[in-house]
């Protein structure tokens, strides 16, 4: 059984908030065992949000994942959490001086660079692993997320878009492998030119640009090129890993997504944790009581 981990040294980054368009200063600091991932708003005198299923703001999941603790909000957490989760980093303090994690280049690759700079330190406490023992699925509006037992942590995803450069893409990968670093982390978020004016009129993507997203018109991309031939589905895998990370445990199971997104990922995760016959939580070879409060489904549109 592997132990928990944190980072060895604090590291810093500066970037733009995707939706606010404002400059964000971020610091990652080491944290003791069993801390989890805690976001601290330094602009709000240290108010914080711990990454957890209970912290998900289901009213703000259209284009990113938002976590909330009362009036304290942290948006666009998924790319950083995806990098931390893939590297098995369980305990970190994330300090930011605004409401968003910086978008960087729209992928998780810059966060892996930060982790490489910080170093990873194993801690003398075993990690908790949620092991899937029975298949579980969640379906709504023609979208589906499901999980099956597996010997490791895998993600498979399929997307379908009526666009000549996307159409149908499928991919499967082992999360804790070099494949994540090489074939998932570099994948950027993407959007369609036809939607930009509407989204900006709603106060969204104020910091979006071709420096941090792939932009498509009716039949081509406006950026110079793609980083990966399957960059679109690879980014959906990146997002799913980051959205699952809020559970606060490691996983052993094969997770699948079909035409899903942040909202479906979150609804699935809440429903899965309430289905206690479908998994066990293991630490140092011992089975623990399920520590998740049954939450049921959240009645929101998908």
UniProtKB/TrEMBL annotation:
Pathway(s): Glycolipid biosynthesis; lipid IV(A) biosynthesis; lipid IV(A) from (3R)-3-hydroxytetradecanoyl-[acyl-carrier-protein] and UDP-N-acetyl-alpha-D-glucosamine: step 2/6
Entry keyword set: Hydrolase, Lipid A biosynthesis, Lipid biosynthesis, Lipid metabolism, Metal-binding, Zinc
GO biological process: lipid A biosynthetic process
Molecular-function GO terms, alphabetical: metal ion binding; UDP-3-O-acyl-N-acetylglucosamine deacetylase activity
UniProt-listed Pfam families: LpxC
Co-factor(s): Zn(2+)
Catalytic residues (positions): 262
Catalyzed reactions: a UDP-3-O-[(3R)-3-hydroxyacyl]-N-acetyl-alpha-D-glucosamine + H2O = a UDP-3-O-[(3R)-3-hydroxyacyl]-alpha-D-glucosamine + acetate
Alphabetized InterPro entries for the sequence: Ribosomal_Su5_D2-typ_SF, UDP-acyl_GlcNac_deAcase, UDP-acyl_GlcNac_deAcase_C, UDP-acyl_N-AcGlcN_deAcase_N
Coiled-coil ranges per UniProt: none
SUPFAM superfamilies: Ribosomal protein S5 domain 2-like
Residues annotated for Zn(2+) binding in this entry: 79, 235, 239
EC number(s) given by UniProt: 3.5.1.108
CC terms in the record's Gene Ontology section: membrane
Reported function: Catalyzes the hydrolysis of UDP-3-O-myristoyl-N-acetylglucosamine to form UDP-3-O-myristoylglucosamine and acetate, the committed step in lipid A biosynthesis.
Family recorded in the similarity comment: Belongs to the LpxC family.
NCBIfam families membership: lpxC
HAMAP family to which the protein is assigned, alphabetical: LpxC
Descriptive protein name: UDP-3-O-acyl-N-acetylglucosamine deacetylase
Organism: Sulfidibacter corallicola
Gene: lpxC
């Amino acid at each position: 059984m592997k132990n928990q981990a944190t980072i060895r040294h604090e590291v810093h980054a500066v970037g733009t908030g995707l939706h606010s368009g404002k400059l964000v200063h971020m610091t990652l600091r080491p944290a003791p065992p069993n801390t989890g991932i805690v976001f601290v708003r330094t602009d709000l005198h240290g108010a914080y949000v711990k990454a957890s299923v209970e912290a998900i703001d289901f009213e703000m999941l259209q284009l990113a994942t938002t976590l909330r603790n009362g009036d304290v909000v942290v948006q666009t957490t998924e790319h950083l959490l995806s990098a931390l989760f893939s590297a098995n980093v369980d305990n970190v303090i994330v300090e930011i001086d605004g409401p968003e994690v910086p978008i960087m280049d729209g992928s998780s690759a810059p966060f892996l660079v930060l982790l490489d700079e910080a170093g990873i330190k194993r801690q003398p406490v075993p990690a908790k692993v949620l092991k899937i023992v029975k298949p579980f699925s969640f379906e709504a509006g023609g979208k589906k997320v499901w999980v099956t037992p597996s010997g490791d942590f895998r993600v498979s995803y399929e997307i379908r878009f009526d666009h000549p450069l996307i159409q149908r893409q499928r991919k499967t990968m082992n999360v804790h492998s070099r494949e994540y670093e090489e074939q998932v982390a570099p994948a950027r978020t993407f959007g369609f030119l036809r939607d930009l004016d509407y989204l900006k009129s709603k106060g969204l993507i104020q910091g979006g640009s071709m420096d941090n997203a792939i932009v498509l018109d009716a039949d081509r991309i406006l950026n110079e090129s793609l980083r990966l031939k399957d960059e679109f589905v690879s980014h959906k895998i990146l997002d799913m890993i980051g959205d699952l990370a809020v559970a606060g445990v490691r996983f052993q199971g094969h997770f699948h997504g079909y035409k899903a997104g942040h909202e479906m990922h979150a609804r699935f995760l809440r429903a899965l944790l309430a289905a206690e016959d479908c998994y066990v939580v293991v630490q140092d070879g011992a089975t623990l009581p399920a520590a998740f409060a049954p939450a049921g489904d959240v009645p929101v549109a998908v």
